[in-house]
Amino acid sequence: MAFLRHIETLVPEHGYRQERIGKILGQRSGSDRTKRYIRSVYGESAIEKRHCIVPDFEEGFSGPSLYVDADGSPKEPSTGERNDAYVAEARKMTPEIARRSVAACEGVEAKNITHVITVSCTGFFNPGPDLLVIEALGLAPTTQRYHLGFMGCYAAFPALKMAAQFCDLDESANVLIVCLEFCSLHLQNKNDLDTIVANSVFADGAAAAIVSGQAPPTGVRGYDLLRFASSLVPEGADDMAWDIGDHGFNIVLSKYVARIIGSGIKELIDEVFAGSGMTPEEIAKWAVHPGGRAILDKVGESLELAPDQLAASREVLAQYGNMSSATVLFVLAEVLREADTKPGDSICAMAFGPGLTIETGVFKVV
Question: Which of 5, 139, 171, 313 is most buried, judging by how many CB atoms fall within 10 Å of its CB?
Answer without folding.
Answer: 313
